[in-house]
Amino acid sequence: MAISKIYKLYLSPDRNYVKALRNLIGFVPGNLSLYRMAFRHKSIALGIKKGVKNSNERLEFLGDAVLGAVVAEVLFKMYPYKDEGFLTEMRSKIVSRANLNQLGKKLGFNKLIEFDPSTVNISSKQSSLLGDAFEALVGAVYLDKGYNFTKDFLINRILNPHVDIHTLEVTETNFKSRLIEWCQRLSKEIQFNLIPNQEGDSDKLFTIQVVIDGELMATGVDYNKKNAEKLAAEKTCEMLGV
Amino acid sequence: MAISKIYKLYLSPDRNYVKALRNLIGFVPGNLSLYRMAFRHKSIALGIKKGVKNSNERLEFLGDAVLGAVVAEVLFKMYPYKDEGFLTEMRSKIVSRANLNQLGKKLGFNKLIEFDPSTVNISSKQSSLLGDAFEALVGAVYLDKGYNFTKDFLINRILNPHVDIHTLEVTETNFKSRLIEWCQRLSKEIQFNLIPNQEGDSDKLFTIQVVIDGELMATGVDYNKKNAEKLAAEKTCEMLGV
């Protein structure tokens, strides 16, 4: 073991933090400040440097992109005979906020994450704190160790042990029921309205509008009424971050 | 020069193709079939293997993700004091279909791309043929040479010489005028409708709906009327791929 690792793990004032991190990510971090940043939620961002918050949001931007590339390659190689539509949908399922939040929870992020509990409820279903921190961690690993290391880390430490890709494949995300549940939880009224066709439209097309508390959210159009509903619900879920 | 490179450039039956590719990408390609695939548009995809078309669409999926990660890192490092909203917006500008199409044109992709001219008009402004091929090329380079090579290729051969990031920074994408132009070109009628506030809404909120040929496309809500229009126009552009 390199001397710097021995120092970090056993002698430095940060040794407990380093050990906790090592247990979580499976390796001894190089640049500690990157990881501290990845686990710092904006609610407690203190230092403001030239307009930029001292929080994990920039790392989240970077990590989201790196995660997207790694997952794209994994799927590209895992499914050589599936088209790009399938690959795109599978990736959305893997990197969905719900899935990443769950990952962050499983990995025990709650022990490392710093946030202001008076303004943020980490266990709220609405909260994307854990998923955001997961992406930020990917950004930190990338800056600390480079692409190939990050790819190995994601595949061997995250995707293989924690994400069952083949189960996700057959799980159809039911956006309509997800949306209805969300509205029930927040006591909002939701309607799926079938809109009469305009002159000149094909008779066979269905147009469904999702309306929540009287406000039009999104429209779905398809030759199949159920698909039109699904489309409209999916767009709404995306808009609302549900 | 390695023997395989000498063979490819001067002796192989593919030598003219290899030289054309080398001029374009700046290096001698390893796995030629990846590059042929990157320049094969779905309109002439011949071989159907177990339901997958022999075209560049899967590579485009992969290349889009790799390009996104490289551009994210470039921006992250170039703008250390800008927030994630700025970085996201800048990346959208750089990887916009319009920008990538222009890049493909500049790089002379029209000489390499294979498509069916009876069904596709490569010079049409609607066509995303060149931009799609650009992303597919990035996917091919990635599979052929790995991430770090692709990053260097993109930075030194594409971004630095061809993309003026600082000009893009001050260019505000005017979605409203882009949408209006598009409608004029296709003789579609467009309206930006101000929707009266619902009971309980803040008086200060503006809701703008974009309606094209009588069909509601998207809604924008903001405290500033111009911003609400911009938001609605942006969503519509995204939906329509304008």
Automatic annotation (TrEMBL), chains A, B:
<keyword id="KW-0698">rRNA processing</keyword>
<feature type="binding site">
    <location>
        <position position="132"/>
    </location>
    <ligand>
        <name>Mg(2+)</name>
    </ligand>
</feature>
<keyword id="KW-0507">mRNA processing</keyword>
<protein>
    <recommendedName>
        <fullName>Ribonuclease 3</fullName>
        <ecNumber>3.1.26.3</ecNumber>
    </recommendedName>
</protein>
<keyword id="KW-0378">Hydrolase</keyword>
<keyword id="KW-0694">RNA-binding</keyword>
<dbReference type="GO" id="GO:0006397">
    <property type="term" value="P:mRNA processing"/>
</dbReference>
<feature type="binding site">
    <location>
        <position position="135"/>
    </location>
    <ligand>
        <name>Mg(2+)</name>
    </ligand>
</feature>
<dbReference type="GO" id="GO:0008033">
    <property type="term" value="P:tRNA processing"/>
</dbReference>
<dbReference type="GO" id="GO:0004525">
    <property type="term" value="F:ribonuclease III activity"/>
</dbReference>
<keyword id="KW-0963">Cytoplasm</keyword>
<dbReference type="InterPro" id="IPR000999">
    <property type="entry name" value="RNase_III_dom"/>
</dbReference>
<dbReference type="GO" id="GO:0046872">
    <property type="term" value="F:metal ion binding"/>
</dbReference>
<keyword id="KW-0479">Metal-binding</keyword>
<dbReference type="InterPro" id="IPR011907">
    <property type="entry name" value="RNase_III"/>
</dbReference>
<dbReference type="GO" id="GO:0010468">
    <property type="term" value="P:regulation of gene expression"/>
</dbReference>
<keyword id="KW-0540">Nuclease</keyword>
<dbReference type="GO" id="GO:0005737">
    <property type="term" value="C:cytoplasm"/>
</dbReference>
<feature type="binding site">
    <location>
        <position position="60"/>
    </location>
    <ligand>
        <name>Mg(2+)</name>
    </ligand>
</feature>
<dbReference type="Pfam" id="PF00035">
    <property type="entry name" value="dsrm"/>
</dbReference>
<dbReference type="Pfam" id="PF14622">
    <property type="entry name" value="Ribonucleas_3_3"/>
</dbReference>
<comment type="function">
    <text>Digests double-stranded RNA. Involved in the processing of primary rRNA transcript to yield the immediate precursors to the large and small rRNAs (23S and 16S). Processes some mRNAs, and tRNAs when they are encoded in the rRNA operon. Processes pre-crRNA and tracrRNA of type II CRISPR loci if present in the organism.</text>
</comment>
<keyword id="KW-0255">Endonuclease</keyword>
<keyword id="KW-0699">rRNA-binding</keyword>
<comment type="similarity">
    <text>Belongs to the ribonuclease III family.</text>
</comment>
<keyword id="KW-0460">Magnesium</keyword>
<dbReference type="InterPro" id="IPR014720">
    <property type="entry name" value="dsRBD_dom"/>
</dbReference>
<dbReference type="GO" id="GO:0003725">
    <property type="term" value="F:double-stranded RNA binding"/>
</dbReference>
<feature type="domain" description="RNase III">
    <location>
        <begin position="18"/>
        <end position="146"/>
    </location>
</feature>
<dbReference type="GO" id="GO:0006364">
    <property type="term" value="P:rRNA processing"/>
</dbReference>
<comment type="subunit">
    <text>Homodimer.</text>
</comment>
<keyword id="KW-0819">tRNA processing</keyword>
<feature type="domain" description="DRBM">
    <location>
        <begin position="174"/>
        <end position="242"/>
    </location>
</feature>
<feature type="active site">
    <location>
        <position position="135"/>
    </location>
</feature>
<dbReference type="InterPro" id="IPR036389">
    <property type="entry name" value="RNase_III_sf"/>
</dbReference>
<feature type="active site">
    <location>
        <position position="64"/>
    </location>
</feature>
<dbReference type="GO" id="GO:0019843">
    <property type="term" value="F:rRNA binding"/>
</dbReference>
